[in-house]
Amino acid sequence: MPKALAGKRPRVNIQASAGPLYGNLRLPFGRNAMTGQRQVLREEYTGYPRGAALNVSQSIFDAGRTTNSVRQAESSVFAARATMRLTEQATLQNGATAYMNVLRDTAVVNLRKNNIAVLEQQLKQTRDRFQVGEVTRTDVAQAEASVAQARSELYAAQAQLKNSVATYRQIIGVEPTHLEPGRSLERLLPRSLQQAIEIALVEHPGVIAALHQADSVESAVKVAESALAPTLSVNAQVSQQWDSFLGVPGSRQFSAAAFAQLNVPLYQGGSEYASIRQAKEQLSQARLNADLQRDSVRASMVSSYGLLETARASIISSRAAVKAAETALTGVREEAKVGQRTTLDVLNATQSLLNARVSLVTCHR
After folding, report:
1. Which tens digit of pLDDT belongs to each residue from 299-308?
2. Given pLDDT bands bounded at 50, 70 and 90, which one contains residue 247?
3. What is the pLDDT of residue 256?
4. How many other β-carbons are positioned within 10 Å of the β-carbon of residue 21?
5. Is the pTM for the entire model greater than 0.85?
6. How far is Cα 150 from Cα 143, in angstroms, rounded to an integer?
């Protein structure tokens, strides 16, 4: 903005010069009356001319170049601020995502640890029953395989947790400690998808930045067009010179002047017309980019809202699945005690309950 506003303000400068000067003057001034020969005055001298001049220039009319430059700069500032908000928004979203990823992966690791404890207890019981002949070696092998598989899944979950912790440290700047469960954002969200789209198309920083950028380029077109119009300025100059008249020592000159200057461009090689065409093409590009941003934001909003609705429904169904899996596991264990279910049935029911709990944690995330 200050750079653009400089076009409206006066320009003041001082010029000074000093330096030695050697002169050899030969000046004819007539003929000798007696001899008829031309008479010449010869003078050889050394001077030290010096002087200073104060120049003041003020633009009166520049065909709107400065005004449109100010508007262009202002729009660029607003676009930059919106772009910064977009970066802030992305950083906040990445921070929230990293936070929830750590919570999710921590819960999954705990679930898998508990699952290993349950399966190890199941393996112990299966081995005891094998000792008394109630089950076969196959049942023991199935229980051992389930424990080994559970440990492998735990190691994978721990690796995923470490990755999430590293991402959290990268974005937040500190290690995650004592994270509280995320709170619901339901009360902050729009009531419907259509309302969410309407808000996004008006308030999204990407859309705002694109619109301001289009305004900036539109002002740039007017700045380019101003090169074809005349300009008017007023100038003033005050100067003082010493030993300046042909370098003659002792001479002195003072001058002051004020004048108006009108510049009417007639032909400048055609570059200004090319600049205008270029600016207009860039304006069309900026307007298309604004439309593209609107479409992109709308698509993103529809996608995000769809994911939200899916998560809401999945939480309800996952809760029901967890409750049903808990009931089923209890029943299968009781039936296995009286020989109506096999060890594999118990292991499958345990795995189903684990999967349901992991799915619920993922849906909450």
Report:
1. 999 999 999 9
2. low
3. 94
4. 15
5. no
6. 11
